[in-house]
Amino acid sequence: MGFCLSFLFFLASIPIIFAQDVKYGTIVVDGTMTVAETDDNFICATLDWWPHDKCDYNQCPWHNSSVINLDLSHPFLAKAIQAFRHLRLRIGGSLQDQVLYEVGNLKSPCHPFRKMKDGLFGFSKGCLRLDRWDELNHFFSRTGAIVTFSLNALHGRHQIRRGVWGGAWDSSNAYDFMNYTISKGHKIDSWEFGNELSGSGVGASNGPWASAWVGESGGAYNSGGRHVSNTFINSFWYLDQLGMGAKYHTKVYCRQTLIGGNYGLLNTTTFVPNPDYYSALLWHRLMGKGVLPVGSDASPYLRAYAHCSKGRAGVTLLLINLSNQTDFIISVRNNLTLRLHVEKKIQRESSFMHVLKRSLSWVGNEASDGATREEYHLTPKDGYLQSQTMVLNGIPLELTENGDIPRLDPVHNNVNSPIYISPLSITFIVFPNFDAPPLSRGFGPVGTRRFSALNLDHSHVSLPLPENNESSCDDVGDDSDYELN
Ligand SMILES: *[C@@H]1O[C@H](CO)[C@@H](O)[C@H](O)[C@H]1NC(C)=O
Ligand SMILES: *[C@@H]1O[C@H](CO)[C@@H](O)[C@H](O)[C@H]1NC(C)=O
Ligand SMILES: *[C@@H]1O[C@H](CO)[C@@H](O)[C@H](O)[C@H]1NC(C)=O
Ligand SMILES: *[C@@H]1O[C@H](CO)[C@@H](O)[C@H](O)[C@H]1NC(C)=O
Ligand SMILES: *[C@@H]1O[C@H](CO)[C@@H](O)[C@H](O)[C@H]1NC(C)=O
Ligand SMILES: *[C@@H]1O[C@H](CO)[C@@H](O)[C@H](O)[C@H]1NC(C)=O
Ligand SMILES: CC(=O)N[C@H]1CO[C@H](CO)[C@@H](O)[C@@H]1O
Asked: What is the pTM of this model?
């Protein structure tokens, strides 16, 4: 044991050898006001209509992931949705305007989509059978999904030329379909008319949809980029989009797709969660709806977003995209604001050293003197950015033997200790109580070791401590019984 400890201390001191070029920056979060508010369920994912023979660039990445043939009995699928307690699902996509529903006096037979050379998007009209629709609704109800359904808005209209449609919309099929749905007691949260093709002309009228909403965003057109959209590196983009979207008044952000294409949150064939799935889940569990202003002169490579915490008092920070060669060491101050103090440039170490140092920095440190914060550090497996496995606090996120979503446990650190963040990683930090009493100058044991190892001047780290003030995050809303894990 003694040997172990001194070995760890030895490792901790190694970065000194590489240290160079210290520079400081500050991130300030103002807890006294919100700049925007999202819907309670900001995270959303889509189910699409693309059939298995939708192909781009010589690959056909949809398999059986369409609304019509997705395997709803797959245990991973239900568990992945249930982990959110309530996940918003949007059913739609390019083909939605060509969908007919097997209700009322539908005059044509109910066939699924077929390839058709001169069809819109290369496919014929397709039909949703009512028994399938019932089955889908039982699935939604069983998994707690909150569903938005995009109705066909071109039925009865004809194409005059590319992208321009004439004639009146025949709404009878959509109408009968809604009536059927309601009469069966199926709970659809909202109906949407028309996708990007028919524009916003028909328009949604209420719910979060009346306001800004990113309907379909997968990160790459035409089914997503293989080796990118389904790997860790995509989470830099995805979480940054979520952060930006929330800040600029987006109420709900729908990720194309939950499953299907190369950009699914779940792998289309194995149903195993991709890294972005865990990014979405952590956001959903941690980030509340109040968006707080963040000021940063830390580094252009450090993107910072702050929200009120979800279902509890306090503030949660999302920090992403550190440069590929800077280690950030951050300390926290609170004016009712946090001051995150940065940084220390460290020459790139060998990947072996890197892994050791990462595991080391995540050794949890239960504070003996008061409040702790929660930290969720996300990195790719083996440091490989295109890994399909995300690592949380040093532990690869893999389904349990029963196919359950693994626990997403934070490490706890004393709120007074500095935060260590590795290059090219993503971190959620939950400050349990934004109105924490003025912070003392000392650091916790881990922090002390790090800071002395890196030889930082403490006088630059501790800032004057302004008065406490009211936090705009005190109201934790209806979600106060929200449980993690
Ligand atoms: C889709 O599912 C059917 C059975 O329902 C199966 O025969 C077929 O091979 C599957 N296709 C793909 C592309 O997975
Ligand atoms: C709505 O559906 C119910 C049950 O299927 C049916 O009895 C009723 O006539 C329908 N209403 C309209 C206006 O179509
Ligand atoms: C699904 O997972 C398998 C096995 O890891 C992988 O080969 C495949 O590329 C993945 N598919 C997608 C669309 O991510
Ligand atoms: C992340 O940093 C790289 C350079 O290291 C930059 O090209 C990229 O735009 C940054 N991405 C985000 C989301 O900030
Ligand atoms: C960091 O990124 C820059 C620009 O993307 C690249 O030129 C450089 O080689 C990278 N450095 C390391 C150590 O990976
Ligand atoms: C909080 O700060 C504002 C502006 O600085 C001030 O007007 C207000 O009185 C303060 N509230 C409390 C409770 O100190
Ligand atoms: C109460 C208080 O001092 N609030 C300040 C905290 O910091 C932000 C950003 O610098 C200021 O805008 C607030 O006025």
From this structure: 0.78
What residue has token string 């920095």?
361
Q: Using the structure block, give the residue that is written with the tokens 């699409």.
A: 48
What is the pLDDT at residue 260? 92
Q: Identify the pLDDT of residue 459.
A: 23
Which of the four CATH numbers 2.60.40.1180, 3.40.50.1480, 3.30.300.20, 3.10.120.10 does domain 21-37+293-479 have? 2.60.40.1180
Q: Whose CA is nearest to atom 4 of ligand 6?
A: 469
Contacts of 197 (CB under 8 A, 6+ apart): 94, 97, 154, 163
Is 50 exceeded by the pLDDT of residue 150?
Answer: yes
Residue 245 contacts by C-beta under 8 Å, 6 or more apart in sequence?
214, 253
In the chain, where does the domain assigned CATH 2.60.40.1180 lie? 21-37+293-479
Ligand 1 atom 12 nearest Cα: 63
| Ligand at shortest distance from the CA of 229 | 3
Q: What percent of the chain has pLDDT over 90?
A: 40
Q: Whose CA is nearest to atom 9 of ligand 5?
A: 324
Q: How confident is the model at residue 157 (pLDDT cuts 50, 70, 90)?
A: confident
Q: Report the separation in Å between the CA atom of 466 and the middle of ligand 7, taken as the mean of its atom positions.
A: 9
- Whether residue 257 is preceded by a cis peptide bond, meaning omega within 30 degrees of 0, is yes
Determine the Cα–Cα distance for residues 34 and 471; give it in Å rounded to an integer: 10
Sequence letter at residue 94: S
Instruction: Using most ligand atoms within 8 A of CB, pick from 335, 340, 470 the residue to mutate for ligand 7.
Output: 335
Task: Report the alpha-carbon distance of residue 360 to residue 367 in Å, rounded.
Answer: 17
Give nearest CA residue, ligand 5 atom 4. Answer: 324
Cα-to-centroid distance, 235 and ligand 3 (Å): 17
pLDDT at 469 over 70: no
Please check whether residue 294 is in contact with residue 319, taking contact to mean a CB–CB distance below 8 angstroms: no
Is residue 329 within 8 Å of residue 420, measured between CB atoms? yes
Distance CA 89, CA 46 (A): 5
Q: In this model, does residue 286 exceed pLDDT 50?
A: yes
List pocket residues of ligand 2, CB cut-off 6 Å: 179-180, 183
Residues with CB under 6 A from ligand 1: 52, 63-64
**Segment 33-82, tens digit of pLDDT:** 889 999 999 999 999 999 988 888 888 888 999 999 999 999 999 999 99
CATH 3.20.20.80 range(s) for the chain read 43-195+210-289
Please give the CATH architecture assigned to the domain spanning 43-195+210-289: Alpha-Beta Barrel (3.20)
Are the CB atoms for 118 and 162 separated by under 8 Å? no
- Find the helix or strand (DSSP H, E) in which 317 lies: strand 315-320
Could you give the percent of the chain with pLDDT greater than 70?
A: 65
